[in-house]
Amino acid sequence: MDKQEKKPLSELMETTMAKIREMVDSNVIVGEPITTPDGVTVIPVSRVSFGFGTGGSDYGKTTDKFGGGGGAGVKIEPVSFLIIKDGVTRVVPVAVPAAGVADRLLDMLPGVVDRVETFVAQKKEQKDIF
Fold this sequence. Notes:
Blueprint: H1 8-23, H2 26-29, E1 34-35, E2 41-58, E3 66-85, E4 88-93, H3 101-129
């Protein structure tokens, strides 16, 4: 058999990988930025898993008969969003709801810190006015 001749199994694998490349690119992992009218930019971040399998065999008394198959799977799972507002970037995770009290407190902590910062800034402004 000539070394230059393509084998059906190689062609099958190349076709399968080409289709996977079409489905999975860097824009799937870190999505396109979305800008809202009020100037907030949201960037989705995902986890991508993929796998493929290909197999085949020559059969019969001659080698010109080939049987084969291939398959692929892709799983895209949202992980978080990057929120950019007024030059400040926050990561907002996409997670299963908290199970216990400690988990709920940890989930609430960033919001509480933001509220405290806003409260302190307002008090500071009031103090500067008077």
